[in-house]
Request: fold
Amino acid sequence: MAIITLAPAARFPEFSLRSSRGETVTLDSLLSLGKPLVIVFRATWCKPCNKQLVSIRTYIEDLHNNPGFITIAICEDDPRSIRYARGTAKKEGWDHLLIL
Reply:
């Protein structure tokens, strides 16, 4: 697992992506909520990603259940894999925002 810490005043690159719910999600829209943001990058086909998910599941679930944090998963799957990515998220108990 890689944890990246940005220097004060450093900014993560802006993004605009579609969520599994069909909504457009931007970095600015998430940051405007004024809460710490945890982003997990993964792909359903990536074996190391799936192993990482198992090892950090409890940590991410604790953050997700804490209303003081926003947790999202950005899946780097092929658009044709959306159904599979949704199924994997449901199976893993990740009912938070899934960005595909």
Observations:
- The two ends are 20 Å apart (CA to CA).
- The chain is about 35% helix and 20% strand.
